[in-house]
User: Fold these one by one.
Assistant:
Number 1:
Amino acid sequence: MSAPFVLTMDDKYVRPAAACIASIVRGTPDPEIIVISQGLSSRSKHALRAVGKRLQVPVDIREAAPHAQALPIFLHFSSAIYTRLQMPEILAEYNRAVYVDADAIAVRSLDPLRRLETDKPVAAVRDPFVPRCGQRWRNRVLTGVSPGSPYVNTGVMVMNLDEWRRLELGAKCIDFVVANHEDSDLILYPDQDAVNVVIGGMDGIELLDPRWNVPPMSDLWCTKGRLPTRHDLQVEEEAFVTHFLGRRKPWDADFPDGVNRSRFYELGTQGLEVIDALLPLDGPEVGQDL
Ligand SMILES: [Mn+2]
C-alpha cells in the first residue's frame, strides 16, 4: 500500500499549501492528499477542497489532535509545532505517511517516497547547512547523540507510523519539547530538534537522497550578500523537492527572481489560481492570525 502525502497548516499557509498540493498532483499519479488543520477557517477548508476538485484529487481535511492546545506555547511558535508529532495518532489507520512542508514544491514525481519501505521510524534528508548534530548543538552532550551523527531537516519526512506508535515516539518527542522548552539553545526548531535528539538518538533515522529536500541555495546566499557556488546552483537545479526554508518565501515581493521562484509559480499554478479566486489576498481571514 502506498502512503498518503500529508501537509499541516493554518490559514496563513493555505496559499503556498495549495501550490504544494498542485505540484504533487502534477507529478505523482493518483496521490492521496491529507491536510491536518491547525484551526483552519471554513473558508480555507472550502478553498482547499476546491483545489482538490480542480486537480481531481480528493483532499481529506482532518483536525489537529485537541490536546495540542494545552501544550506550552513558547517563543514565536504556535501549537503547530506539535502537529507533526501527533501524526501517528491523527493518521491511525495508516502504516506510513509522507509529510511535506507547506512551503515545499515537488519538482518531480514523489512516487519513490510514498513507496519507500523503511524499518526506521523516519527517513529524511541531512540539513545542508547543519549536517551534523555536533554543529547544531555545540558543546552539548545529549544522550545517544554523537557530535558526528547527522542532523536532518524534517520538511520532507517519510514516517513509519507503525514504528512511531509501537515506540510511542510522538509522546516521547512531545515530552522532550515540553521538558526543554525554556532551553532556547537546545530547542530552536522544536519538532525538528526533538526528532533529531529522540529518534536520531536511537538510530531511528534513515538518510534520504539529498535531492528530496533542497533549499533555494542561491536565493538564501543572495540574501546574505554572498554569491552561490556552482555546486549550490547544480544541487538546486537537480532538486526533486524545493523546500523554501528560511524567512523569505517565493510569494514575498522581495524574493529574488530565478529558477526557484518560477518553480513555485509554474508548478503550483493550478492551486494558486483556485486560491486567488476564492481567497483574495485582502480578504479578512488571510494572513492576520500571527
Ligand atoms: Mn518549511
Note: Residues 5-278 form a domain with the Spore Coat Polysaccharide Biosynthesis Protein SpsA; Chain A fold (CATH 3.90.550.10).
Number 2:
Amino acid sequence: MPSIRTALTLLSASAAVIAAPAMKKRANDVYAQRAIEHYNIMTGNGSYNSEYFSPENVPYHSVETLMVEAPDHGHESVSETYSFWIWLEAVNGKLTGDYSGVETAWSYLEKHMIPDSKNQPGNSKYNPSSPATYAAEHDDIDGYPSELIFQNGIVGEDPIAKELSQAYGNWDIYAMHWIIDGDNWYGYGQQGDGKSKPSFINTFQRGPSESTWKTVPHPCWEAMKWGGRNGFLDLFTVDNSYAKQWRYTAAPDADARAIQAAYFAWLWADEDGVNLSSVASNAAKLGDYLRYAQYDKYFKKIGNCVGYQQCSAGSGKNSAHYLISWYFAWGGGLQGDWAWRIGSSHTHTGYQSPLAAWILSTQSAFKPKSATGAKDWATSMERQLELFRWLQTPEGCIAGGATNSWQGSYAKPSSEITTFYGMWYDWQPVYHDPPSNNWTGMQGWGMERVCSLYYLSGDERAGLVCQNWAKWVKETTRVSNGEVIHATNLGWDGNPDEWKSSNFKKSNLNASLHGTVTSEGCDLGSIASIVKALMWVSMKDGDDEGIQLAVDVMDAIENYKDDLGYAITEARADYDKFGGEVYVPSGWTGKNAQGANIKSGVTFIDIRPKYKEDPDWAQVEDFLNGGNPPEFTYHRFWGQTEIMVANGIISIYGLDSYGGKGGNNNNHNNNNNNNSSGNKTGTCPTSITRQGYKCCSKNCQVVYTDADGDWGVENGNWCGCGGGEICPSAITNQGYKCCSTCGTVWYQDADGDWGVENGDWCGMPLDC
Ligand SMILES: *[C@@H]1O[C@H](CO)[C@@H](O)[C@H](O)[C@H]1NC(C)=O
Ligand SMILES: *[C@@H]1O[C@H](CO)[C@@H](O)[C@H](O)[C@H]1NC(C)=O
Ligand SMILES: *[C@@H]1O[C@H](CO)[C@@H](O)[C@H](O)[C@H]1NC(C)=O
Ligand SMILES: *[C@@H]1O[C@H](CO)[C@@H](O)[C@H](O)[C@H]1NC(C)=O
Ligand SMILES: *[C@@H]1O[C@H](CO)[C@@H](O)[C@H](O)[C@H]1NC(C)=O
Ligand SMILES: *[C@@H]1O[C@H](CO)[C@@H](O)[C@H](O)[C@H]1NC(C)=O
Ligand SMILES: *[C@@H]1O[C@H](CO)[C@@H](O)[C@H](O)[C@H]1NC(C)=O
C-alpha cells in the first residue's frame, strides 16, 4: 500500500453522454409480474419443459389427460392451442424484451400442425375446376355415411388455387390441421406407422348432432390399417370403392388468431427495435391460404342457394361469402394421384376476425403474396363487420351466424328466417349438442377481434358494435366478494332484421332478436377473453368504467390461482356420457389402434379402453356406477393464456393507472427514474451479465429494475446499470472504501486505481 504522498498519477474522468433509449423499458408492475410468472410456470421458464408441453414441445390442450370437451383427450392439441401459444410468446416478448419465443412457437406450429409435403402428396394433381364431390350433411347422425354424388355441374370452381401455387411455387396448402394426438394416445402415429408423435388425427365428420361423445377418432392418413374393410372411410361417406387417402380439416378461427398474435408480436417487437419480419411473412402466407374459409363448401354461388342441383355452381369469386367459416378441408390419394378441396357454407360470429382481415389487407409486412389475397381480405373485413352488426341484439350480445347451405344440404328454410347477403340466419351454426352459440366464450372470441380492430384502426363501425356490446358486458359481469360472476350460457330468440348495409348506423332494429343469460357462473378463460375485448374498446374511448371493470375482474382472478396457473374445480355431470353410445351403423365392424372393437352399440369408453388406465378414471367409473359427478380442476392452455394475455395488456397499455388495486407501484411505461441525480455508477451485477447482457457505460440511467438489478438501455439493447462492484474488489478486500465520486487517480497498481478522500485511500469507481 503506497503512502498517500507517493501518489504519482493525475488522471481525470470525462463524462460520456448516454443516448436516451428509443425503446420502452421492461415492465415490472404487478400485472407484468403476474403475466411473466404465469408464462414461466406454463413454459418452464421458456424451456418448454413443463406439464403444459410434451417432450416434443406439443402444447397440450390441458395439463390433465382425462378431459373431454371438443378434444376428447387432454393431451391432444388443437390449432387453437398453437394460436394461443403465439399470443403467450408475444406478450412475454413485450414484457421481457425477449421475443425469441415467438419464432420458436411459430416453428412448432408449422412443424406439428401444417402437414409437410410428404404428408399431403398429390396436390399438383388437384383440378381447380372440379374441386370435390358433393355429399349432403345430415342433421341426424344416423344419416351417415352420406352418399357421394358423382354428377357434373354441382360443384363450382376454386378461384384461388392457381394464384396460390403461382405465389408460393407449389400446390401444397399452408394451413393448420385442427387436431393432433400429442402423445399418440390413440396409436395411429404418422403415415400409419403407429408410433410417431404427435400424430394427425380427426374426430367429428358426421353433422351437427355429432357431439364429441359420438365421435370415432381416426387417422388423417387413411392407409386402411385400422378400422374396417375400408378403414374408417365408410363411416362417413358412401363411395363405389374406397381409395387409401389423406385428409385434413382447418379450424380457421385458430389460423386467424395465430395471425393476430403474430401481428401484436411483430408490432411490439418493432417498437422495441426487434425485427420479426420472418414471422410476419409466414403469417401472411397462412392468411393467403386461409381464404379457403371464405368459400361455400362446394364453391356454389352465395345467396338464396336452394337445391344442390338447382343452385348454381360458382364461377370466379361468386362463391365467396368473405366470412371466416367453420372449416375448410383438403385431401387426396396416398399415391399422390388425386386431390380435393372444400370450403364451408356455415359461419359463426364467434369465429370471425375482422382484425386479421385488416392486418392482411393493410399492413405491408403481412401482405399476402398472391395476386388477390390482400384485396379479398379487404372485402372480408367489411363483410365481417356487417355480420356483427346484423347479429347484434338490442341487449348488445351477438347472435349465432349465417349459412349458405341450410341443413348442409342446400335445403330451403322456413320463410321467417331472415338473410344476410342471401345467407340464412342460424342461431346455432354447425353444431347443436350443445348449441354452438350458448357458450359465452363465443362472445369474447369474436368481439375481442372487433374491439382490437377498433383500438388499432379506429374504424367507427367496429366501435359502434363494441360500444353496444360493452354495455351488455358491464350489465352481465360483476365482481363480488372477490368472486367473478358473469354470463356463462346464453339463450336465443327471434330473428334479426333482414340485412341492408345502409342499416349499419341505424338503431332500434332487430326488435325481435334477443339473447338472454340462461346461466351465470365463472369460466376463467371465457371471462378473460371478454374483458380483453372490453379493454380495447374502453381504452380507445377512454371509458374508465369499462377499464375499471376489466382490471377488477383480473384482480379477482388472482383469487383462483394455484400451482399451475388459475383454475376452478368443475363437477362434470356430462361425464356420464363416457357410458353413452357412439353411433355405428349396424353391420359395420372394425378395430382401432387401441385394440377396441368398433361395432353397433359400443360406448365412448368401449372404443377408448386406454382411459381405464388414466389416474383419474376411478372417479369417472364411480360416477357411472351411481356415484357423484367427478370433479376436475382443469388447466386448459387456451384459458391460461387468455388470463396471461389480459394481465399483460393491462401492463403494456398502462391500464392499472386507471385505479386498479394492484397497480400502485412502479408505473409501466414512463421512465420514473430519469433524473440525473439518480444515475448509477459502478459496474453491473453478475446476475445481469450472466444472462448475456453487458454492463452499461458509466453514469447510466436506470430505466427498469427487477430482482436481477438495475437496467439501462444503450444502442437499443438492455444493459446492466450499476449495482455491481463500484470499485475493484481487490481494493475493498483490503479494507478500503470506494471513493464516493470519480476524481483524481493518485496511484495505480495491480489492484486498480486509487483516489483519496477524507485523508485516506479509496478505490476509484470502475466506471470513471
Ligand atoms: C424457473 O425459475 C424459477 C426462479 O428462478 C425457479 O424457481 C423454477 O424452479 C424454474 N422452473 C423451471 C421449470 O425451470
Ligand atoms: C427486417 O428484416 C428483413 C429481412 O430479414 C428486412 O428485409 C427488413 O428490411 C427488416 N426490417 C426492418 C424494419 O429492419
Ligand atoms: C341454449 O339456447 C337455447 C335456445 O335459446 C335454450 O333453449 C337453452 O336453454 C340454452 N341452453 C343453455 C344451457 O343455456
Ligand atoms: C340489428 O340489425 C340491424 C340491421 O339488420 C342493424 O342496423 C341494427 O343496428 C342491429 N342492432 C341493433 C341493436 O339494433
Ligand atoms: C422523466 O420521466 C417523466 C415521467 O416519469 C417524464 O414525464 C419526463 O418527460 C421524463 N424526462 C425526461 C427528460 O426524459
Ligand atoms: C444521467 O444519465 C443521462 C442519460 O443517460 C445523461 O444524459 C446524464 O448526463 C447523466 N447525468 C449525469 C450527472 O451523469
Ligand atoms: C431522482 O432519482 C433519485 C434516485 O432514484 C431519487 O432519490 C430522487 O428523488 C429523484 N429526484 C427527482 C427530482 O425526481
Note: DSSP finds 16 helices and 33 strands in the chain.
